[in-house]
Amino acid sequence: MTARLLTHLRHVDLAVPDYDKQLDFYSGVWGLTKVTEDSGISFLAAEGSPEQYVVRLRKAEEKRLDLVSYGAASPADVDTLAEQLLAGGVQLVSQPGKVDTPGGGHGFRFFDVDGRTIEVVADVEVRQHRRIEEKEAIPVKLSHVVLNSPDLNRTREWYERHLGFALSDTLMHPRMGEAMHFMRISNQHHSMAIARGPHTALHHVSFEMRGLDEYMRGSGRVMRAGYRKIWGPGRHLAGDNTFTYFLDPHGNTVEYTTELEVLDEDTWHPHVYDFSQPEVTDQWGTANTMNELIAKESFNDVDRGVFVAPPV
Protein backbone atom coordinates (compact mmCIF):
# COMPACT_ATOMS: atom_id res chain seq x y z
CA MET A 1 0.00 0.00 0.00
CA THR A 2 1.28 3.46 -0.91
CA ALA A 3 1.62 6.27 1.63
CA ARG A 4 -1.70 8.01 2.25
CA LEU A 5 -1.81 11.38 0.50
CA LEU A 6 -5.59 11.80 0.27
CA THR A 7 -7.35 13.54 3.15
CA HIS A 8 -11.09 13.39 2.47
CA LEU A 9 -13.90 13.09 -0.07
CA ARG A 10 -14.75 16.47 -1.61
CA HIS A 11 -17.54 16.10 -4.16
CA VAL A 12 -19.30 13.81 -6.63
CA ASP A 13 -20.12 15.12 -10.12
CA LEU A 14 -23.06 13.82 -12.15
CA ALA A 15 -24.07 14.27 -15.78
CA VAL A 16 -27.84 14.19 -16.28
CA PRO A 17 -30.18 14.50 -19.31
CA ASP A 18 -33.07 16.06 -17.37
CA TYR A 19 -30.97 18.76 -15.77
CA ASP A 20 -33.75 21.02 -14.47
CA LYS A 21 -35.53 18.16 -12.69
CA GLN A 22 -32.27 17.05 -11.02
CA LEU A 23 -31.41 20.58 -9.96
CA ASP A 24 -34.86 21.04 -8.44
CA PHE A 25 -34.44 17.78 -6.50
CA TYR A 26 -30.98 18.42 -5.06
CA SER A 27 -31.46 22.13 -4.32
CA GLY A 28 -35.03 21.61 -3.09
CA VAL A 29 -36.24 18.53 -1.26
CA TRP A 30 -32.75 17.04 -0.74
CA GLY A 31 -31.56 20.20 1.04
CA LEU A 32 -28.39 21.32 -0.76
CA THR A 33 -27.64 24.97 -1.59
CA LYS A 34 -27.03 26.08 -5.18
CA VAL A 35 -23.79 28.07 -5.05
CA THR A 36 -23.44 29.01 -8.70
CA GLU A 37 -24.83 28.01 -12.08
CA ASP A 38 -23.55 28.64 -15.59
CA SER A 39 -24.43 27.16 -18.99
CA GLY A 40 -25.97 23.91 -17.79
CA ILE A 41 -23.57 23.30 -14.91
CA SER A 42 -24.53 23.88 -11.27
CA PHE A 43 -22.52 23.55 -8.06
CA LEU A 44 -24.38 22.54 -4.89
CA ALA A 45 -23.01 22.91 -1.36
CA ALA A 46 -23.93 21.40 2.00
CA GLU A 47 -24.50 24.19 4.51
CA GLY A 48 -22.40 22.53 7.23
CA SER A 49 -19.40 21.76 5.00
CA PRO A 50 -16.32 23.91 4.27
CA GLU A 51 -16.23 22.43 0.75
CA GLN A 52 -17.21 24.84 -2.02
CA TYR A 53 -19.62 22.20 -3.31
CA VAL A 54 -20.43 18.53 -2.68
CA VAL A 55 -22.40 17.81 -5.88
CA ARG A 56 -21.90 19.13 -9.39
CA LEU A 57 -24.65 18.65 -11.97
CA ARG A 58 -23.93 18.92 -15.70
CA LYS A 59 -26.55 18.89 -18.43
CA ALA A 60 -25.72 16.13 -20.92
CA GLU A 61 -27.40 13.83 -23.43
CA GLU A 62 -26.27 10.73 -21.52
CA LYS A 63 -26.42 10.00 -17.80
CA ARG A 64 -22.99 9.26 -16.32
CA LEU A 65 -20.74 9.73 -13.31
CA ASP A 66 -18.45 12.61 -14.35
CA LEU A 67 -15.96 12.26 -11.53
CA VAL A 68 -15.25 11.71 -7.84
CA SER A 69 -13.05 14.34 -6.18
CA TYR A 70 -10.74 13.94 -3.17
CA GLY A 71 -8.72 16.44 -1.20
CA ALA A 72 -4.99 16.45 -0.47
CA ALA A 73 -3.13 18.38 2.23
CA SER A 74 -0.89 20.45 -0.06
CA PRO A 75 0.04 21.14 -3.69
CA ALA A 76 3.26 19.23 -3.04
CA ASP A 77 1.24 16.15 -2.11
CA VAL A 78 -0.81 16.55 -5.29
CA ASP A 79 2.36 16.66 -7.37
CA THR A 80 3.86 13.69 -5.52
CA LEU A 81 0.73 11.62 -6.11
CA ALA A 82 0.70 12.48 -9.81
CA GLU A 83 4.33 11.35 -10.11
CA GLN A 84 3.58 8.11 -8.25
CA LEU A 85 0.55 7.34 -10.42
CA LEU A 86 2.50 7.96 -13.62
CA ALA A 87 5.28 5.71 -12.39
CA GLY A 88 2.67 3.07 -11.57
CA GLY A 89 1.24 3.11 -15.09
CA VAL A 90 -1.95 5.00 -14.25
CA GLN A 91 -3.41 7.06 -17.11
CA LEU A 92 -3.61 10.77 -16.26
CA VAL A 93 -6.44 12.83 -17.72
CA SER A 94 -4.73 16.12 -16.86
CA GLN A 95 -1.43 17.30 -15.39
CA PRO A 96 -1.27 18.99 -11.96
CA GLY A 97 -2.12 22.66 -12.23
CA LYS A 98 -4.66 25.36 -11.51
CA VAL A 99 -8.24 24.15 -11.08
CA ASP A 100 -10.96 26.34 -12.62
CA THR A 101 -13.91 25.42 -10.41
CA PRO A 102 -15.38 27.31 -7.42
CA GLY A 103 -12.66 27.75 -4.80
CA GLY A 104 -9.83 27.14 -7.24
CA GLY A 105 -6.92 25.02 -6.05
CA HIS A 106 -4.14 22.86 -7.46
CA GLY A 107 -5.08 19.46 -8.79
CA PHE A 108 -5.28 16.89 -11.58
CA ARG A 109 -7.45 14.05 -12.88
CA PHE A 110 -6.83 10.42 -13.79
CA PHE A 111 -8.67 7.18 -14.55
CA ASP A 112 -9.03 4.48 -11.91
CA VAL A 113 -8.78 0.80 -12.83
CA ASP A 114 -12.46 0.68 -13.87
CA GLY A 115 -12.22 3.83 -16.01
CA ARG A 116 -13.82 6.34 -13.65
CA THR A 117 -12.43 9.85 -13.64
CA ILE A 118 -10.91 10.69 -10.24
CA GLU A 119 -9.76 14.16 -9.22
CA VAL A 120 -7.36 15.16 -6.44
CA VAL A 121 -7.12 18.83 -5.40
CA ALA A 122 -5.38 20.85 -2.66
CA ASP A 123 -5.51 24.51 -1.64
CA VAL A 124 -9.21 24.98 -2.35
CA GLU A 125 -10.60 28.13 -0.78
CA VAL A 126 -12.81 27.29 2.21
CA ARG A 127 -16.48 28.08 1.80
CA GLN A 128 -18.17 30.05 4.55
CA HIS A 129 -20.29 27.44 6.29
CA ARG A 130 -22.26 27.21 9.50
CA ARG A 131 -23.35 24.92 12.29
CA ILE A 132 -26.53 23.06 11.40
CA GLU A 133 -29.13 23.74 14.06
CA GLU A 134 -31.25 21.28 16.02
CA LYS A 135 -34.18 19.91 13.95
CA GLU A 136 -32.66 21.39 10.77
CA ALA A 137 -32.94 18.38 8.48
CA ILE A 138 -30.48 19.26 5.71
CA PRO A 139 -27.12 17.61 4.89
CA VAL A 140 -24.16 18.69 6.99
CA LYS A 141 -21.63 17.29 4.51
CA LEU A 142 -20.92 14.58 1.96
CA SER A 143 -20.37 11.33 3.86
CA HIS A 144 -19.25 8.70 1.35
CA VAL A 145 -19.59 7.32 -2.15
CA VAL A 146 -20.14 3.69 -3.16
CA LEU A 147 -19.00 2.44 -6.57
CA ASN A 148 -20.10 -0.66 -8.48
CA SER A 149 -17.32 -2.80 -9.89
CA PRO A 150 -17.52 -6.08 -11.86
CA ASP A 151 -14.18 -7.13 -10.28
CA LEU A 152 -14.45 -6.28 -6.60
CA ASN A 153 -10.97 -7.28 -5.46
CA ARG A 154 -9.11 -5.86 -8.44
CA THR A 155 -10.69 -2.48 -7.69
CA ARG A 156 -9.98 -2.77 -3.96
CA GLU A 157 -6.33 -3.64 -4.58
CA TRP A 158 -5.92 -0.75 -7.04
CA TYR A 159 -7.19 1.78 -4.50
CA GLU A 160 -4.97 0.32 -1.79
CA ARG A 161 -1.87 0.27 -3.97
CA HIS A 162 -2.21 3.62 -5.73
CA LEU A 163 -4.20 5.86 -3.37
CA GLY A 164 -3.48 4.51 0.13
CA PHE A 165 -7.00 3.35 0.98
CA ALA A 166 -7.31 0.80 3.79
CA LEU A 167 -9.93 -1.92 4.17
CA SER A 168 -12.30 -1.40 7.12
CA ASP A 169 -14.85 -4.23 6.70
CA THR A 170 -16.28 -6.61 4.09
CA LEU A 171 -19.81 -7.83 3.42
CA MET A 172 -20.22 -11.36 2.11
CA HIS A 173 -23.06 -13.77 1.33
CA PRO A 174 -22.91 -17.58 1.54
CA ARG A 175 -24.07 -17.91 -2.11
CA MET A 176 -22.53 -14.79 -3.64
CA GLY A 177 -19.22 -14.58 -1.82
CA GLU A 178 -17.71 -11.13 -1.19
CA ALA A 179 -20.15 -8.36 -2.09
CA MET A 180 -18.79 -5.06 -0.69
CA HIS A 181 -15.54 -3.65 0.67
CA PHE A 182 -15.63 -0.56 2.93
CA MET A 183 -12.52 1.57 2.35
CA ARG A 184 -11.08 4.48 4.35
CA ILE A 185 -8.51 7.27 4.05
CA SER A 186 -8.96 8.52 7.62
CA ASN A 187 -10.43 7.28 10.89
CA GLN A 188 -13.91 7.57 9.34
CA HIS A 189 -15.05 3.97 8.76
CA HIS A 190 -15.39 4.57 5.04
CA SER A 191 -15.34 7.45 2.60
CA MET A 192 -15.74 4.96 -0.24
CA ALA A 193 -17.08 1.45 -0.63
CA ILE A 194 -16.79 -0.89 -3.58
CA ALA A 195 -19.83 -3.00 -4.39
CA ARG A 196 -19.90 -6.03 -6.65
CA GLY A 197 -22.10 -5.24 -9.63
CA PRO A 198 -22.60 -6.43 -13.20
CA HIS A 199 -20.96 -3.31 -14.65
CA THR A 200 -19.03 -0.18 -13.68
CA ALA A 201 -21.46 2.40 -12.30
CA LEU A 202 -22.31 4.65 -9.37
CA HIS A 203 -23.94 2.65 -6.55
CA HIS A 204 -24.90 5.50 -4.22
CA VAL A 205 -23.90 8.86 -2.78
CA SER A 206 -24.40 9.41 0.96
CA PHE A 207 -24.98 12.64 2.88
CA GLU A 208 -24.37 13.12 6.61
CA MET A 209 -27.16 14.61 8.73
CA ARG A 210 -26.75 16.41 12.08
CA GLY A 211 -28.15 13.60 14.23
CA LEU A 212 -30.85 10.95 14.50
CA ASP A 213 -33.75 13.38 14.70
CA GLU A 214 -32.58 15.37 11.70
CA TYR A 215 -31.91 12.16 9.77
CA MET A 216 -35.48 10.95 10.42
CA ARG A 217 -37.02 14.34 9.64
CA GLY A 218 -35.09 14.54 6.37
CA SER A 219 -36.07 11.01 5.41
CA GLY A 220 -39.71 11.84 6.11
CA ARG A 221 -39.55 15.02 4.03
CA VAL A 222 -38.25 13.17 0.97
CA MET A 223 -40.87 10.44 1.43
CA ARG A 224 -43.68 12.99 1.71
CA ALA A 225 -42.43 14.70 -1.44
CA GLY A 226 -43.17 11.46 -3.30
CA TYR A 227 -39.65 10.33 -4.19
CA ARG A 228 -39.14 6.61 -4.22
CA LYS A 229 -37.65 5.14 -1.04
CA ILE A 230 -35.68 1.99 -1.80
CA TRP A 231 -34.55 0.91 1.65
CA GLY A 232 -34.72 2.14 5.23
CA PRO A 233 -34.84 3.68 7.69
CA GLY A 234 -32.44 1.38 9.53
CA ARG A 235 -28.95 1.03 10.97
CA HIS A 236 -26.13 -0.95 9.37
CA LEU A 237 -23.71 -3.10 11.36
CA ALA A 238 -20.63 -2.32 9.24
CA GLY A 239 -19.97 1.36 9.97
CA ASP A 240 -22.78 1.46 12.56
CA ASN A 241 -24.46 4.23 10.56
CA THR A 242 -28.13 4.89 9.88
CA PHE A 243 -29.52 4.64 6.35
CA THR A 244 -32.43 5.64 4.18
CA TYR A 245 -31.94 5.21 0.43
CA PHE A 246 -33.90 7.05 -2.26
CA LEU A 247 -33.80 7.29 -6.06
CA ASP A 248 -33.12 10.73 -7.51
CA PRO A 249 -35.08 11.70 -10.67
CA HIS A 250 -32.59 9.90 -12.93
CA GLY A 251 -32.36 6.69 -10.95
CA ASN A 252 -29.17 7.39 -9.01
CA THR A 253 -29.35 6.15 -5.43
CA VAL A 254 -28.81 8.77 -2.71
CA GLU A 255 -28.69 8.19 1.03
CA TYR A 256 -29.24 10.11 4.23
CA THR A 257 -27.05 8.82 7.05
CA THR A 258 -25.65 9.83 10.42
CA GLU A 259 -23.32 8.59 13.18
CA LEU A 260 -20.87 6.79 10.88
CA GLU A 261 -18.32 4.96 13.03
CA VAL A 262 -14.96 6.56 13.85
CA LEU A 263 -12.17 3.99 14.20
CA ASP A 264 -8.94 3.67 16.15
CA GLU A 265 -6.85 2.88 13.09
CA ASP A 266 -3.94 1.55 15.14
CA THR A 267 -6.01 -1.26 16.62
CA TRP A 268 -8.71 -1.85 14.00
CA HIS A 269 -8.99 -5.23 12.30
CA PRO A 270 -11.42 -5.70 9.39
CA HIS A 271 -14.48 -7.87 9.92
CA VAL A 272 -16.23 -10.08 7.38
CA TYR A 273 -19.99 -9.79 7.90
CA ASP A 274 -22.56 -12.20 6.45
CA PHE A 275 -25.28 -9.91 5.13
CA SER A 276 -27.74 -12.80 4.80
CA GLN A 277 -28.11 -12.25 8.57
CA PRO A 278 -30.78 -9.56 9.02
CA GLU A 279 -28.99 -7.86 11.93
CA VAL A 280 -26.00 -7.16 9.64
CA THR A 281 -27.98 -5.15 7.10
CA ASP A 282 -30.19 -3.52 9.75
CA GLN A 283 -29.45 -3.67 13.47
CA TRP A 284 -32.77 -2.05 14.33
CA GLY A 285 -35.01 -4.29 12.23
CA THR A 286 -37.02 -1.28 11.07
CA ALA A 287 -36.08 -1.25 7.37
CA ASN A 288 -37.86 -3.21 4.67
CA THR A 289 -36.10 -6.55 4.11
CA MET A 290 -33.10 -6.45 1.78
CA ASN A 291 -33.69 -8.64 -1.28
CA GLU A 292 -32.42 -9.06 -4.83
CA LEU A 293 -34.86 -6.50 -6.24
CA ILE A 294 -33.66 -3.83 -3.81
CA ALA A 295 -30.03 -4.71 -4.51
CA LYS A 296 -30.56 -4.37 -8.27
CA GLU A 297 -31.89 -0.82 -7.88
CA SER A 298 -28.37 0.32 -6.99
CA PHE A 299 -26.69 -1.49 -9.89
CA ASN A 300 -27.66 1.65 -11.81
CA ASP A 301 -27.32 2.02 -15.57
CA VAL A 302 -24.09 1.14 -17.39
CA ASP A 303 -21.81 4.16 -16.92
CA ARG A 304 -21.21 5.93 -20.25
CA GLY A 305 -18.18 7.72 -18.81
CA VAL A 306 -15.81 4.74 -18.53
CA PHE A 307 -12.36 5.83 -19.80
CA VAL A 308 -13.99 8.95 -21.24
CA ALA A 309 -13.03 12.11 -19.36
CA PRO A 310 -15.86 14.59 -18.73
CA PRO A 311 -15.70 17.67 -21.01
CA VAL A 312 -15.40 20.02 -18.02
Automatic annotation (TrEMBL):
Gene3D superfamilies: 2,3-Dihydroxybiphenyl 1,2-Dioxygenase, domain 1. SUPFAM superfamilies: Glyoxalase/Bleomycin resistance protein/Dihydroxybiphenyl dioxygenase. CDD domains: BphC5-RrK37_N_like (cd08362). PROSITE patterns: VOC (PS51819). InterPro entries: Glyas_Bleomycin-R_OHBP_Dase, Glyas_Fos-R_dOase_dom, GlyoxalaseI/FosfomycinResist, VOC_core. Residues 8-123, 141-259 form the VOC domain. Pfam families: Glyoxalase. This is VOC family protein. It comes from Streptomyces ortus.
